[in-house]
Amino acid sequence: MDVVQVSELCKKYKNKYRTKIALDNISFSVKKGEILGIIGPSGVGKTTLLKILTGQLLPDSGQFDILGGKISQKTYENLGIMMSDGLYETLSIKYNLQLFAEIFNINSKRVDQLLKITDLYELRNKKVTKLSSGEKQRLLLCRTLLHQPQLLLLDEPTSRLDPKNTVAIHELLSKLKREGKTIILTTHDMLEAEQICDRVIFLHQGRVIEIGRPYELKLKYNPKVKYELMLKNGEFLKFTETRGDLLQISALLENKKVATLHTCEPTLNDIFLKLVKGGKDK
Ligand SMILES: Nc1ncnc2c1ncn2[C@@H]1O[C@H](COP(=O)(O)OP(=O)(O)OP(=O)(O)O)[C@@H](O)[C@H]1O
């Protein structure tokens, strides 16, 4: 079942001096239980897309369905949005969450549970003004998850986190996926996309330039050189998949000359750079 279906979305920002095409004919769909990563560098239209999907911005043309229909007040009951903060700066972590819990009529046990999962429980009485950017980020995620939404739209959920907290949030997102939640997230981090996303969309200059599962893209863009060996004498050798090369690798292995052996599939970063090479700015 498609939880999100987007068809030919276009959005331009216009002012007196210039028109900026932020989204150019974007189409994709997301299935229940999928994590979709929208990736690309700064300014390619990721936030614009999320703003449209969350009803904060109208597209110029195109359509989308979300959670089985057009966006309405009811949609928000099952939608978790993590974008700009909007936290109550002078209130504590816990009070910020309690306020939202009361609005959604949620038991305060859920607040404590989320604070523990995101490693904020010990800091629960600290005011938002005194939080580090990583702590704020985790608080925002708690607020997004509070009402147990079916669909999460997360704008760079790990952008300000240290490695330990990044791993914790990745684990949390994977757990939510296993529970059947659907997640769309934006990221600049290609490694993150590779590790946690079922599929990724590469955006460039407002257009979808590639879409697919990370491992499928890696196979699709796999270079001719397939294996890289370091010999015990420190020499580096590269091999393709021809019969001759494979026989050479086998001989080196048999003669115990090999120190390390790696396959050379590209990273998502390599693929993105390959796709945009030669692209001009609009
Ligand atoms: N309100 C606006 N008025 C004019 N131009 C805008 C407006 N909002 C965004 N843009 C431009 O539209 C393009 C897409 O912006 P958007 O914020 O969607 O990019 P992004 O991929 O989310 O970037 P980042 O990763 O830096 O958040 C950018 O060139 C941006 O400067």
UniProtKB/TrEMBL annotation:
Matching InterPro entries: AAA+_ATPase, ABC_transporter-like_ATP-bd, ABC_transporter-like_CS, ABC_transporter_ATP-binding, P-loop_NTPase
Protein name, per record: ABC transporter ATP-binding protein
Xref: SMART domains: AAA
Alphabetized Gene3D superfamilies for the sequence: P-loop containing nucleotide triphosphate hydrolases (3.40.50.300)
Pfam family, one: ABC_tran
Record's keyword terms, sorted: ATP-binding, Nucleotide-binding, Transport
Organism: Ligilactobacillus murinus
A single MF term (Gene Ontology): ATP binding
Domain of life: Bacteria
ABC transporter domain segment(s): 4-230
